[in-house]
Amino acid sequence: MEVFAHQKVYNELLNFIAKCNVGDKIPSENVLATTFGITRATVRQGISRLKNEGIIYSKQGSGNYIAPDKIKYELSYTTSFTKEIEKSGSIPSSKILELEEIAANDDIAQQLNVDLGENIVFVKFLRFTDSIPFLYTNSYLNTKALPDIIKHMQDFSSITKLMGEVYNIYPTRTHSEIEIVIPSEEQSKILEMPSFPLIKISSNSINPKTGEILEHAVSYFRSDRAKIAVNFDKRS
After folding, report:
1. Which has the closest alpha carbon to 35: 15, 18, 51, 50?
2. Is 235 contained in some domain?
3. What is the CATH number of the domain that holds 114?
């Protein structure tokens, strides 16, 4: 009986969602439980399935909303967050969560090809599509190649654009590593998401003229919002 009720909630919600628009709020658990004459626990099962399939998403303290289709995010030699999101028809925006000078630890020193303990800039960006958290990035910047970059960070939402306009450098990506990871409680909070896996992408960018490593970036995408594609065309 409970399995049937759980499936009924799922099916009815799919029918409801088909008539609504992206961003519309679905009825509360209490309303659905009363409507179907079942327990809130059973309603919660149906809602959880819809969340797991990326059909709806939660806003803490507000309720559940109809999710947009997944956004195709293409990795190439010259990937730009702003350009990728604009291609999808969505509106990109960014927010700096952390910005500071730090000493490079062993891993970051190797990634940037700098000395252990050398001063670098660390910045954590939270990036949005249509005001919904989409990914966040931990970025480590080589201050030898990009002197005084910390002074310019507040004026730019795009590191790629900053490098071009301030340093006349147009970086290219040398490689990317992709992993699926389970989010920590902090990561779920930052991205305002339930316990979906995250798509972790680690990348290095270089100055194509000198070969200097400019940036090591580790990005965490919401797997319910992003669809990653890889472009092997070097001309892109």
Report:
1. 15
2. no
3. 3.40.1410.10
Contacts of 198 (CB under 8 A, 6+ apart): 180, 181, 182, 183, 187, 191, 220, 221, 222, 223
Residues 222 and 57 sit within 8 Å (Cβ to Cβ): no
Which stretches does DSSP call E strand in 2-147?
56-59, 63-66, 71-75, 92-103, 119-129, 132-141
**Is residue 123 located within the same domain as residue 216?**
yes
Residue 98 forms beta bridges with which residues? 124
Residue 4, pLDDT score: 66
Rounded Cα gap, residues 132 and 115, in angstroms: 38
Tokens matching residue 139: 């970025």
Residues 58, 116, single domain; the answer is: no
Q: Can you give the pLDDT at residue 56?
A: 86
Strand positions, DSSP E, the chain? 56-59, 63-66, 71-75, 92-103, 119-129, 132-141, 172-181, 198-206, 213-222, 226-230
DSSP letter (8 states) at residue 88: T
pTM: predicted TM-score of the whole model, two decimal places: 0.78
In the prediction, which pLDDT does 231 show? Answer: 82
Q: How many domains does the chain have?
A: 2
pLDDT value at residue 1: 45
Report mean pLDDT in 10-residue bins for the chain, 236 residues.
67 85 88 86 87 79 84 89 90 94 97 97 95 94 96 87 94 93 92 83 96 97 90 66
Q: Are residues 170 and 193 in the same domain?
A: yes
